[in-house]
Amino acid sequence: MARGDWDPENLPDLSGRTYLITGSNAGLGYFSAEQLVGAGAHVVMTGRSPNRLAAARAAVTRRVVDAGASGSVETLLLDTSNLGSVRAAAATVKGRGKLDGLLLNAGIVHPPKERETSLDGNELVFATNVLGHFALAGALLLTLAAGRGRMVWLGSMSTSLGAQDPVDPQLHENYTGWRAYVQSKVATTALGFEADRRLRDAGVPVRSIIAHPGYSVSGRTRGVVGVNEPSRLARFTDNLQAALTQSKERGAWPLVRALADPEVEGGDFLGPRFVTRGEPRKGTASKITRDPEIAARLWGVCEDAAGVQWPFLKATKTRR
Ligand SMILES: NC(=O)c1ccc[n+]([C@@H]2O[C@H](COP(=O)([O-])OP(=O)(O)OC[C@H]3O[C@@H](n4cnc5c(N)ncnc54)[C@H](OP(=O)(O)O)[C@@H]3O)[C@@H](O)[C@H]2O)c1
């Protein structure tokens, strides 16, 4: 997969494809939706707030569909911190047929200072960033297999900054917001690789891919009413870091490439060319996230905490 083979500003025709994005009312999820719809895809925009979702849907319609794109959008409530909400949303999507791609994007990026728990009793950052996505991808595995689709997990370069083996993924001890965030990203990346291994072993026609957006900030991203309205101060401070950062539109590029580039394979890791910014290309994930023992252990933790086993056997038998 060479760098020059993909132009993020001229995507292939995605007409007839359907993608679901978690956390798509803002940030990378929103701009991924814009790009996919712009290329003709149908996007199921999901989020936890009806009002924020409605604003995001209106923005995509105004900025992309009304501008002539053949793609389309619908919205669906999905709170990734809440396993009941994940089950309900998955049931709705399953009833509608095949899915070409699932972007597991939603995330708490500014975790609470003190440890908090979700409605299900799981540590909130782990529940939101990891468990909800593990449960969603498992629940939609047959739907993805029907479309020979892909799931894309959100990694982060923070996992290269001295991340440790997450032996206590729910941080019952020694919680800090930073530790919770980095552990959650170690987990999503490791689970992405583990899913790839398990899908291949079982012969399921679904690719599991990991993508990260570098360092993408709101203050360097165009304003979109109801979606991206950074303060003047945020614009000022984010622009001070211009050499290291990029917009969320560009941050969405590796995510969209992971979903749509036919050359991308299961187990690939995509990110910006210059780590924090740049065109999307294949890279190498941090060592800890590539450790199969850590990944297998996290898989078991997720199965127990989410009460979900992925239906590999049934998915193997699924044919379009
Ligand atoms: N930006 C970066 O530089 C960067 C770097 C590495 C990785 N990432 C990853 O990229 C993903 C998106 O980050 P971002 O920069 O776009 O952040 P963002 O602008 O803060 O957007 C986060 C999105 O996730 C949603 N979300 C949060 N909690 C949720 C929940 N319980 N259920 C459903 N949706 C929820 C938010 O919805 P609400 O509006 O309802 O809160 C929002 O739509 C995250 O997984 C993050 O870890 C980002």
**Number of separate strands:** 8
In order across it, which strands form the biggest sheet?
3-2-1-4-5-6-7-8
The ligands found in this model are: NADP nicotinamide-adenine-dinucleotide phosphate
Structural class of the secondary structure composition?
alpha/beta
The CATH class label is: Alpha Beta
Main sheet makeup: 8 strands, mixed
Strand content: 5-15%
User: Topology as H/E string?
Assistant: EHEHEHEHHEHEHHEEHH
Report helical residue fraction. 40-55%
What kind of assembly state do the chains in view correspond to?
single chain
The CATH superfamily is known as NAD(P)-binding Rossmann-like Domain
- Total of helices: 10
Gyration radius, rounded: 18 Å
The span between the termini is 27 Å
CATH topology heading: Rossmann fold
Q: Unreliable runs, pLDDT <50, ≥5 residues? A: none
The domain tally reads: 1
What is the residue-mean pLDDT, rounded to a whole number? 95
What general outline do the C-alpha atoms trace? globular
Please give the CATH architecture.
Answer: 3-Layer(aba) Sandwich
Summarize the structure in words.
- This protein has a single domain (13-317), classed as Rossmann fold.
- 41% of the residues lie in helices and 12% in strands.
- It is built from 10 helices and 8 strands.
- The protein is α/β, with parallel strands linked by helices and 320 residues long.
- Strands 3-2-1-4-5-6-7-8 form an 8-stranded mixed sheet, sandwiched between helices.
- It has helices at residues 27-38, 50-65, 83-94, 124-139, 141-146, 177-202, 232-240, 248-260, 292-306, 312-317; strands at 18-21, 42-47, 72-77, 101-104, 150-154, 207-211, 269-272, 280-282.
- Bound molecules: NADP nicotinamide-adenine-dinucleotide phosphate.
- Residues 22-23, 25-29, 47-49, 52, 79-81, 105-109, 128-129, 154, 156, 212-213, 215-216, 248, 251 line the site of NADP nicotinamide-adenine-dinucleotide phosphate.
- NADP nicotinamide-adenine-dinucleotide phosphate binds at residues 22-23, 25-29, 47-49, 52, 79-81, 105-109, 128-129, 154, 156, 212-213, 215-216, 248, 251.
